Amino acid sequence: MAEQVRAIRTRQAILSAAAKIFEEHGYQAATISQILGEAGVTKGALYFHFQSKEDLAQGVLAEQDQHQQLMVPERASKVQEIVDVVMLHAHRLQTDPMVRAGVRLSMDQLAQGLDRSGPFLRWGEVGCTLLERAQAQGELLPHVVVPETADVIVGSFAGIQSMSQAICDYGDLVVRVSALMRHLLPSVVVPSVLASLDLAETRGATVYAEARKAADALELAPAG
Amino acid sequence: MAEQVRAIRTRQAILSAAAKIFEEHGYQAATISQILGEAGVTKGALYFHFQSKEDLAQGVLAEQDQHQQLMVPERASKVQEIVDVVMLHAHRLQTDPMVRAGVRLSMDQLAQGLDRSGPFLRWGEVGCTLLERAQAQGELLPHVVVPETADVIVGSFAGIQSMSQAICDYGDLVVRVSALMRHLLPSVVVPSVLASLDLAETRGATVYAEARKAADALELAPAG
């Protein structure tokens, strides 16, 4: 058990180091030696967890979605749940270096040989699942094609965050994401649902506090 | 006159070389020597046109918008003109290496020390100008805040192109951009205008052919 905990910690230390090095040098220029130096682990430990530089990058890429999906509490309105996932992600981009590193890597159009499609496809699936539930309970307009709408949300979010980073290092991210939601949702959601949505800029921080509390309660609970 | 033409050609050759090197190595890792080697010009010629690596990158970044604005013919509907600018840009991204390089650089979140905000801000201004004209002639819904909507269009386009590049190297770009327009415009445009818009996936290619013809006619015309 102690060994397992140690292994998880080592893996996290390596991923944090990889995230930092990828952010500093870009995927292309980063080397495994730099990551080793930053993580302060042995070569053997690193290769036990990760086979290659691409493998390390995929680990960092995966961090952004794994954390995410666990954390948004269920909502009666599945459209609100989508908004909450998006707004929480925006909030975490502003505050969590690991989430930030994962997103930057997935936006690194210069990273040759790195398959960056994973996060887009996985986020697309999250979007599809939630939109299908919204559709099933009558929240969506009749013309909506779920995979198309999911991809529009995922793709446009990716660009809005990049623009916010370029212009003011994420200073206005939640404002921009709230504006994006107000622009996209009227063509997707029935008016009665639209009117009841919380699209405020503060939504991400609120959901984060709520989700954090739920996660902490779960960790304190005895394992089954 | 001949000298001026030569200078313009040299500048273009240097920019093309810079675009290629930035795409291959990323902004961070690229060096001026590599660009010199690729362009096949003297150091003196390069420094006559560009002072530094950042200056070269700004030159490549500027290429994507300068070409663009000249080329879309005026439309009676300013919203259609916006759609045409966006669709033409998507088409050129699929077909023009220089436009592609400029966009990739502006999306390079790892390019430290490079101010990538320029293209976002300049595209935002293009959007504002056209949206203001649309607003003046009653094409927009009353609640629209022009700079906000311009930024949503620019930012979301940036992400949609990045997603398309990551998933299939721009193979489905025009399909995705058409879907984006269909999702954004209903919350921006009055219904009667919306119904008359051409948002087809083929729109970019059509506008390109039209604009190319106009540009060629202009070049053939005697200078005033």
TrEMBL record, chains A, B:
<dbReference type="InterPro" id="IPR001647">
    <property type="entry name" value="HTH_TetR"/>
</dbReference>
<protein>
    <submittedName>
        <fullName>TetR/AcrR family transcriptional regulator</fullName>
    </submittedName>
</protein>
<dbReference type="InterPro" id="IPR009057">
    <property type="entry name" value="Homeodomain-like_sf"/>
</dbReference>
<feature type="domain" description="HTH tetR-type">
    <location>
        <begin position="8"/>
        <end position="68"/>
    </location>
</feature>
<dbReference type="InterPro" id="IPR036271">
    <property type="entry name" value="Tet_transcr_reg_TetR-rel_C_sf"/>
</dbReference>
<dbReference type="InterPro" id="IPR050109">
    <property type="entry name" value="HTH-type_TetR-like_transc_reg"/>
</dbReference>
<keyword id="KW-0804">Transcription</keyword>
<keyword id="KW-0805">Transcription regulation</keyword>
<dbReference type="InterPro" id="IPR047923">
    <property type="entry name" value="ArpA-like"/>
</dbReference>
<dbReference type="InterPro" id="IPR023772">
    <property type="entry name" value="DNA-bd_HTH_TetR-type_CS"/>
</dbReference>
<keyword id="KW-0238">DNA-binding</keyword>
<dbReference type="Pfam" id="PF00440">
    <property type="entry name" value="TetR_N"/>
</dbReference>
<feature type="DNA-binding region" description="H-T-H motif">
    <location>
        <begin position="31"/>
        <end position="50"/>
    </location>
</feature>
